[in-house]
Amino acid sequence: MKQIKIGLIGFGTIGRAVYSGLKKNGSILSANLGAKVVLKSLCDRDRSVFKESKVNKKLIKKNAYEIINDPDIDIVIELIGGIKPAKDFIIKALKNKKYVITANKALLSVDKKEIFKVAHDNGVAVFFEASVLAGVPVIKVLRESLIANSVKSIKGIINGTSNYILSAMYEKGISFKVALKEAQEKGYAERNYSLDVDGHDSAHKLAIMSSLAFSCDIKPDDIYVEGISNISNDDVKFAKEFGYCIKLLAVAKSHKDSIEVRVQPALLPKEHMLSNVNEAYNAVYLKSDMAQDIFLYGQGAGGSSTSSGVLSDVADAVSCILAKDVLKAYQVDIFSGAKKKLRQASQVESSYYVRFMAVDTPGVLAKISGILAKHKVSIASVMQKSRDRVKAVPIIMLTHQVKEADLNNAINEIDKKKIIMKRSVVIKMEKEG
User: Fold this and answer.
1) What pLDDT was estimated at residue 1?
2) Catalytic residue ranges
3) 283 dihedral zone (left: phi>0; alpha: psi -120 to 50; beta)
4) CA angle at 111 for the pair 109 and 112, rounded to the nearest 5°
5) SS3 278
6) pTM score, whole prediction
7) What is the rounded (10 degree) CA torsion for 74, 75, 80, 85?
8) By the 8 A CB rule, do 283 and 274 touch?
9) What is the pLDDT of residue 189?
10) How far is the C-alpha of 269 from the C-alpha of 276, rounded, in Å?
11) How far apart are CA 270 and CA 244, in angstroms?
12) Nearest Cα to 110, choosing from 261, 252, 262, 219?
């Protein structure tokens, strides 16, 4: 049986899980592939991490280049994350004709064009299933299963930390701050949680998915990003009364002449499939012309799930090596599609949830409604809450379909009025699916 040798760079949570997965299920992987998969060497800048896993000292190398320059290694797995030096390691490995597997969403979201070109020029490929939803096979679906389809839209809950927080706020009626602390205690949120709750982690993942789906190079800076830290438990409660829940959604849509890409909180009807994705789980809802609706759900983070995605990439790389050919689906040409401009967030049309904090005096609702009407904003539903012994009361409205620019103009005018005590809250509504 032919041996395929692997070098592993990075022995953190995911690296250790990959190592354990190979020890536990390596024989299953080898039997299914018809080739013996062998971990030949590994490295990490912190050599103390190897003691706990009782790694054979013969496998440990002093630095990444001992692995990258080893002519016996067929596949390099990069799991250190970040841009530098990960990009240098990947580029050098590809130039050495090695297949590369990475879970590095930050790097791929920005530099995928250069990395894929180097892989193509050297007759190898880059695999990155675990970069988006860990072990949930959304990359494989976009890369292979939908290769003959025109993808129409992607909607996803693709950050477990934010989803846990919003789920806790919905189920328990607690504040964002309390839900965040709970998420940290359970290990779902890092000490530096801003990348998750501000939406940037989701933007990195959406940039990768939408580039594959629409055959163009979309980067995080192209994506409108809005986080969840300003969502109050009042907004969650009011949305619930209207029959909605609030989720941080990553959305990409292909229009006739443009592409819409955004990450932002959104109201979803309770019957929507994504409304029932709770705690730290992730899900993606894909719509295409031939396969139509596809829903993928599972653990979108964590060592075990991510290692499953990495090892599925190992299987694909081994298949290419055994066939002595890089399958077309793996030589990603994300620039073959017709050029489309990016649709600005202000030009998006949708329904919206709006919460005003207004003085409790007669005629306030009429004044707000008049300004909305002037800016072509039509009201679908309204709820006015009275509160004893407080100066500001919430007025909650759901609008009909409206261009976001028109709504923003109306809100800006309303917020300048003396009848408004606090900045108004606007949350987009998603109803499709």
Assistant:
1) 81
2) 205
3) beta
4) 75
5) coil
6) 0.93
7) 50
8) yes
9) 85
10) 10
11) 5
12) 219
Count of residues making up the chain = 433
| Each residue's pLDDT tens digit, 225-253 | 999 999 999 999 999 999 999 999 999 99
**Alpha helices (H) in 103-222, listed in sequence order:** 105-121, 130-133, 138-140, 160-172, 176-185, 194-197, 200-214
Distance CA 92, CA 130 (A): 21
The DSSP output letter for 30 is H
pLDDT at 257: 83
CB-based contacts of 31: which residues, under 8 Å, 6+ apart?
none
Question: H or E stretch including 86?
Answer: helix 86-95
Burial class of residue 393, CB neighbours in 10 A (0-12, 13-18, 19+): middle
What radius of gyration, in Å, describes the C-alpha atoms of the chain? 24
Tell me the β-bridge partners of 268: 245
**87-123 b/e with 16+ CB inside 10 Å = b?**
bebbbbbbebebbbbbbbbbbbbbbbeebbebbbebe
Token pair 């190592």 is at which residue?
Answer: 19
Nearest alpha-carbon partner for 36 in 6, 13, 58, 76: 6
Q: What is the pLDDT of residue 271?
A: 94
Token couple for 196: 């998750």
Tell me what pLDDT residue 390 has. Answer: 65
What is the C-alpha separation between 8 and 13, in angstroms, rounded?
13
Q: Which pLDDT value is given to residue 282?
A: 97
State which residues of the chain have pLDDT below 50: none
Q: How many CA atoms lie within 13 A of 201 on its CB side?
A: 25
